[in-house]
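Hello,

Following up on my earlier ticket. Below are the two sequence lines again, exactly as submitted.
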Amino acid sequence: MNGAEAVIAAARDQGIEICFANPGTTEMPLVLALDSVPGVRGVLCLHENVATGAADGYARMTGKPAMCLLHLGPGLANGLTNLHNARRAGVPMLNVIGEHASWHIAADPLLNSEIERLTAWFGSKAVRLGAALDAGRVVGEAVSAARNNRAIATLIVPHDLQIAKSDAAPFEQATAAPPRTFRAQKAGQAAQALRTSGAAMLLGGDALTERGLRLAARIAAATGAELYCDTFFARMERGGDLPRVKKLPYFPDAALELMKRHTRVIIAGTRRPVTFFGYPGVPSHLVTDAQTVMLAEPGEDALGALAALADEIAAPEAFDIARAARPAVPKGPLDAAAVSAVIACLQPDNCIMMDEALTVGVPYFEASQGAPRFTHMMLTGGAIGQGPGTAAGAAFACPDRKVINFQSDGCGAYSVQALWTEAREHLDVITIIGANRSYNILNVELARAGITKPGRNARNMAMLDAPYLDWVRIGEGFGVPGVSVDTAGALARELEKALASKGPRLIEAVMT
Amino acid sequence: MNGAEAVIAAARDQGIEICFANPGTTEMPLVLALDSVPGVRGVLCLHENVATGAADGYARMTGKPAMCLLHLGPGLANGLTNLHNARRAGVPMLNVIGEHASWHIAADPLLNSEIERLTAWFGSKAVRLGAALDAGRVVGEAVSAARNNRAIATLIVPHDLQIAKSDAAPFEQATAAPPRTFRAQKAGQAAQALRTSGAAMLLGGDALTERGLRLAARIAAATGAELYCDTFFARMERGGDLPRVKKLPYFPDAALELMKRHTRVIIAGTRRPVTFFGYPGVPSHLVTDAQTVMLAEPGEDALGALAALADEIAAPEAFDIARAARPAVPKGPLDAAAVSAVIACLQPDNCIMMDEALTVGVPYFEASQGAPRFTHMMLTGGAIGQGPGTAAGAAFACPDRKVINFQSDGCGAYSVQALWTEAREHLDVITIIGANRSYNILNVELARAGITKPGRNARNMAMLDAPYLDWVRIGEGFGVPGVSVDTAGALARELEKALASKGPRLIEAVMT
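Thanks for your patience. The regenerated structure is below:
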């Protein structure tokens, strides 16, 4: 067994099942090890940001780390923005990078770079393998740390160590993650705060699982507290008989207006909410220090804290939850509301919704309140181009569930290469492009700033026209069949057709 | 005038004419300034790596920096690999990044990151604007430094400073770059070395300009020295009546074999050559210390040094240069030799060739020895996906010259978004995709390692089949008309057609 095989064997023994990759020459022993050490499935991605996005989606759906195999510093660099998003999502992941041979680095070959500068940028602990014999231990520690801390670990494996002999010393299973804890006095403080009228709860992370939502709903039923979720969440269970919550609005004026209504805001599983950008005259934080009761920080046991709070206030076990109605299929041309309504109306039971629709998707959250049970994932770090890769990763994780990637065109254009992996691996993903043919958020921001007639440059920077992207052609180019529609009726028909079959499909929903 | 306008005005006053951009909310004042402060043309790119690649191509052709306008850390992150390539090319560039408002950063909004960690990775000096009134001076210094050092400068401009009032204090023109120098004793050492038989010269950087090549040819005519150029050069003038040189082979065994024939190797405008990867048993450096005479390092005055050397040995002013013949148009199915021959046979006078064809393009250098005058650019840092953006940037720089982007399919798939900018801006670029439908270099490396029947994973990582990329569809999706060919005759016909018209075209050359 060589060092590369020891790395793959150790990753497999730590529960890694899949490797999203775009390898180069310095990773070839690791690629060969995927064959000689069975157990880890290799998946080629045509761009590293698809690989890292897929690993994020896989981790969100399974709770387990996938492996990314990336070529030197530049390969990692290409995957950075979805690593940024994955960090914000709080998922475990293992990056493995084939580095130049140790003895070759001093000569500064063209592809050479300081890889650790990049891992520092997205807050990943990087370990550089120093001896082939250590591969088992180092991989074991890295995967354990990733899983236990829901973090991204990066292992840099010089080529000479990949090909060096490495006894497959089995890694002693790392001790299980210490259970997350919560601070009991916080439950008491939250109970106290809930006794004032006009309290609210803001939920994120584990609080958006089924268990978390049911606990929060019990607390709300007992106290009348309003329930909110983060504007951008990694994963939320929704629909069916699950309790509903409101989503914190994106724009700070609307969010502040809502939050001002609440005397206290009890936060579980997420941070005190921050405006997406800093707007003059608007505070960075949407709730004040005085309003905030931090029941459970992101690293704490939000479920335990919610359960303790429910006990503390003797919340009822059973209560009625009024179910929302599904929207009717609208008629006529498409706008954000119509696209959102059609999807919310037709999405099947138990589907996975990757939602990087941004302005097109604003109406979707409310529209889908009455949908059957589904898992809702969003863009977590604001770095656009996440949807296609993350949807693909979710499809690998859950091959029996239909994945819908509800995607804005501007964001989607960043990661078109993911369509090829969908085609090659026959992933059951429907990509719905909400084609407003612009970076519409920029137009919205210009309008908010009172600029109704932008100059030539400002207009050009926001408009994806001249030429329009032809998404059907792009999809076909990468192997995914598609169709373009511009009415709600046609979107509904095509979505029904796509839902009736398996495998990747693309629908371009052209908005007026 | 606000800070954003002061930045744009200062950039314009420093000679910046074009801005390749993908802005977000935190860059909107800078975008508006492109309209209110006329003189810098804004060009939208659908991915930041297209923007940075375009700025590289623009700089290679003009010697001047272009500006990239990028959205926060993630926007810079997406553009990193072509910044890596640009650094290796030694071009000037100005990145401007709209940062969160200074007062907002501490709240760690979702898109927040430590931008300076990224600039450190590609060796760029980053300056964070500290006061709007300083904008003129800071931009002036940054552009001067970029131009004088042929380096990438990065300016981080917090949003609050973009909208703050800034008197447009004109920046005192920076003192011109101190002229590059060379060490006179090196010319003497080189002259001495050239008196031994079997000497060679390795040229890069400025030594590959017309003047450099003619000086080197005079020296070779006087001494019999063999002339070589770097395996990967940023820009080389070639064809017509220019002196020919040999290219250092990519694989180290062939390169070492060649270099061993030479008692001394005189190097001008480039580094002592390093193997692309570290191969067991092969040295990192292709010429030994003892062989090396470093006439001019990359930062030194290679042209002055060559001129001094030519004087030192009293090289003849005039001598015959045997011109190479153009290849005939081959017949039959396409392989790397046939694709290269067709292009070399038909490329028009004074065209710009961006060559990221890798294994498909190996035969091209020799095949094009007899072509009419042209400028040849290559992938400089090994980070694939450079060709499409860099070709676009060259087309902006030289609107009257035909640009051919000779592109391998694996590399091209990284940067398909550049096609949209070509279409939108009616750039005169012909993209020729050498479609071997694989990451062929990996197959070559496997074969070199004696692996003729790779396992499933290794095969899958190297093959771009199942499905094939349909480049005509991809081109059409982004607005560039295209055609697919699979014989040399058809490639020649379609290339002639494309050459006869203006504007972007794509030809997929499918190899058997």
